[in-house]
Specification:
TIM Barrel; Chorismate Mutase Domain, subunit A; 10% strand; elongated; binds phosphoenolpyruvate; binds manganese (II) ion
């Protein structure tokens, strides 16, 4: 897929001087609830109203959405408030109904993006549409599956595209409902700088107290927009109660978020930056040289393991290294998570090289 400027034309056409904000409840519950929230969002920086009509729930017996009647309520929102309207579609019937009700922005949910069959079915049903289609990241941290979704839509001649980062599910305990794994969307943005990236801090956080910080991180990383679940009575919401905020709180959040400039021509900033970057370049160079030297020594160890017929993996030694490095890292203000990732990568490379030496 080439990197096409046209993918973000829909967003540029808004001519916003702030990030795009999509807000509204997790689920449409009643006509009153939908219109009440929409009316509170009407004269704010919110551009589009969201509400789930069909809800993918992990366990049966939970609220699964009001179904197509909710689309009529969304149309009322558009007529009464002028907000654009958006909802999740998960099969070709949803697409057909959403298009019939003139939904402006359709998104593919995290549980659908994992299935190429479903994404293809949706892409076929949307073929050639002028509507905006956003693809949420799949629940698992798989960048190619996420991009594959975009490619399927692009191949169906759908031009107004974008991504929603909603975090990745994890078995490990975490303060997040879905861990952000920021490096994944950052890599996507590096590869496809023209594909709009929207953050969904609500599903990342799972907890309304984290929404602000997650949103600020997204803006610091130059995201194009935010999708924030907003409900007039969050605690009594029929789905995702703990992560929703009131319209009033949403407005405060939008006011307090700091928008950073992508860059500036200011001279002092430029000079400082050049200075600091030169220092980083010197250190990066030294890091590489040292890694190269370390790997040569690894090769030598491989040689003596080979002549003594000893196994490549020496768990005891490896655990000693890790333990020592975590402690030393702590003193240097380097997180355990970082040290683990770094040394696992170094150790793996050492093993690969010794395997080669031992089997030559
Ligand atoms: C939602 O947006 O309400 C939703 C179900 O999100 P996700 O697909 O990210 O779980
Ligand atoms: Mn939700």
């Amino acid at each position: 897929m080439e990197n096409k400027k046209e993918m973000r034309k829909w967003l540029d056409d808004f001519k916003l001087d702030h990030p795009l904000v999509i807000a509204g409840p997790c689920s449409a519950e009643t006509e009153d609830q939908v219109l009440n929230i929409a009316n509170q969002l009407k004269d704010t920086d919110v551009s589009a109203f969201r509400a789930g009509i069909w809800k993918p729930r992990t366990k049966p017996g939970m609220f699964e959405g009001v179904g197509s009647i909710g689309l009529k309520w969304l149309q009322k929102v558009k007529n009464e408030t002028g907000l654009l309207i958006s909802t999740e579609v998960a099969n070709s019937t949803h697409v057909k109904l959403a298009l019939e009700h003139d939904i402006d922005i359709l998104w593919i949910g995290a549980r659908s993006t994992v299935s190429p069959f479903i994404v293809q079915e949706i892409a076929d049903a949307l073929k050639g549409t002028e509507k905006v289609v956003l693809v949420k990241n799949p629940v698992n941290p798989d960048l190619s599956l996420w991009m594959g979704g975009i490619e399927r839509l692009h191949s169906s001649n759908i031009k107004n595209l974008g991504l929603i980062h909603r975090g990745f599910s994890t078995y490990e305990k975490s303060k997040y409902r879905n861990i952000p794994e920021w490096q994944i969307p950052v890599e996507v943005m590096n590869r496809f700088p023209d594909l709009p990236m929207i953050c969904d801090p609500s599903h990342i956080s799972g907890n309304r107290n984290l929404i602000f910080d997650v949103s600020q991180t997204a803006l610091d990383l130059n995201y194009d927009g935010l999708m924030i679940e907003t409900h007039s009575d969050p605690d009594n919401a029929w789905s995702d109660a703990s992560q929703q905020v009131t319209p009033k709180r949403l407005v405060e959040i939008m006011k307090d978020l700091k928008m950073r400039k992508i860059t500036t021509d200011e001279e002092e900033y430029q000079n400082n930056l050049i200075d600091l970057r030169a220092k980083i370049d010197v250190i990066d160079h030294a890091l590489l040289e040292n890694l190269g030297k370390r790997m040569k020594i690894s090769d030598n160890i491989g040689e003596i393991k080979r002549s003594n017929n000893v196994a490549v993996l020496q768990n005891k030694r490896w655990n000693e290294i890790l333990g020592k490095m975590i402690l030393e890292g702590e003193k240097l203000d380097l997180s355990e998570e970082f040290i683990l990732k770094l040394f696992k990568a170094i150790h793996q490379e050492s093993i690969n090289r010794q395997e080669k030496v031992i089997n030559k």
